[in-house]
Design brief:
- This protein folds into two domains: about 15-150, Mannose-Binding Protein A, subunit A (Mannose-Binding Protein A, Chain A); about 160-305, Mannose-Binding Protein A, Chain A (Roll).
- The protein contains six helices and 14 strands.
- It has helices at about 10-20, 40-45, 60-70, 150-155, 180-190, 205-215; strands at about 30-35, 55, 80-90, 100, 125-130, 130-135, 140-150, 170, 195-200, 220-230, 240-245, 275-280, 285, 300-305.
- The longest helix is centred in the first third of the chain and has 11 residues, at about 10-20.
- Bound molecules: calcium ion (CA) (4 copies).
- One calcium ion binds near residues 87 and 118.
- One calcium ion binds next to loops.
């Protein structure tokens, strides 16, 4: 239910003026704008904020929870605003058509559609309102949320020179049953012959080459190192490393994903527990070595030393 305020009285002025401003929050990779714009204008504004910036895309339930926490008790709580998805060819009310991100990629997370939404073929933009999502016309003006996305969300595959990868072998399984856990992936690499094992990025340059080789695949790829945490402090990287090629902690290049799960950013923080190193896009995290992929099959990268 919407409440309209007929006249301004002292107490309400503050409320309304708060609503006209940008929403403040504590996490620097999101920005909320209340000056209403249509989809193209809003997208342009987000992109003007710098590399990786575009309209916000919710990738996980955790990110939705973050959003709700930011909005709660502000006048944005019940405000409708634009996000970075497009929904094409609505099939019937309540039955969505093709959904893609503002970067033209397949979304990782299904929006919690409001009852009967999306409901119109001509409505190709996606609006967040009070915890639910609906489609609306892209030409209509809305407040909007921007996000600085990870590289994997906007990167585009490029032609690869095979001669750069003579000592590497990258496996990105398409089928769920072809995913492997860390040990099985390692066995596969070793079976390739003398000198082969899981890949260890020993420098930023080598890691960037692996990033190039995975070529924007949305898969996670196992790398040849294990990490055992010493502390339960978040984002502290002082645990024990064990690399398949004998590399010391200093010889293993790391670039953690501090955005996807910033509340508990990698490496993991459960003292005494060992997890395995993996990469996705141009970032890394650690994961239970037994996992072979829940919805996305785990890939792996082999290296010949
Ligand atoms: Ca996101
Ligand atoms: Ca629609
Ligand atoms: Ca609609
Ligand atoms: Ca290496």
């Amino acid at each position: 239910m919407k409440i309209f305020l007929p006249t301004l009285v002292a107490g309400e002025i503050e409320f309304l003026s708060r609503c006209s401003g940008e929403l403040k929050n504590s996490y620097g990779r999101y920005k909320f704008f209340s000056k209403a714009k249509n989809f193209e204008q809003a997208k342009e504004k987000c992109m003007s904020l710098g590399e990786g910036w575009n309209l916000m895309i919710i990738n996980t339930k955790r990110e939705l929870t973050y959003l709700k926490e930011v909005l709660v008790d502000s006048c944005w709580e019940n405000k409708a605003f634009l996000l970075g998805w497009k929904e094409f060819d609505t099939i019937a009310p309540g039955s969505r058509g093709r959904l893609e991100t503002v970067f033209g990629k397949e979304p990782e997370w299904e929006p919690k559609w409001d009852r009967g939404e999306p409901n119109e073929e001509g409505q190709e933009c996606v609006i967040y309102e009070s915890g639910k999502f609906h489609d609306s016309f892209c030409a209509e003006n809305y407040a909007f949320a921007c996000e600085q996305h990870n590289f994997i969300e906007f990167c585009e595959p490029e032609a690869i020179d095979p001669s750069d990868f003579e000592n590497y072998s990258i496996y990105a399984p398409e089928n769920l049953e072809d995913g492997r856990n860390w040990n099985d992936a390692r066995d596969y690499c070793i079976s390739k012959g003398a000198g082969w094992d899981l890949a260890v990025p020993n420098s930023e340059e080598e890691f960037d080459l692996l990033v190039k080789g995975t070529n924007c695949s949305n898969k996670r790829f196992w790398l040849g190192a294990k990490y055992t945490a010493n502390t339960d402090e978040i984002a502290v990287d002082d645990g024990v490393y064990e690399a398949v090629d004998g590399s010391t902690e200093k010889e293993i290049f790391r670039r953690w994903d501090t955005h996807t799960n910033w509340l508990s950013s990698p490496p993991h923080n459960r003292p005494g527990e060992t997890e395995c190193l993996r990469m996705r896009g141009n970032l890394m995290n650690t994961k239970d070595c037994e996992t072979d992929g829940n919805k996305l099959p785990h890939g792996w990268i082999c290296e010949r030393n």
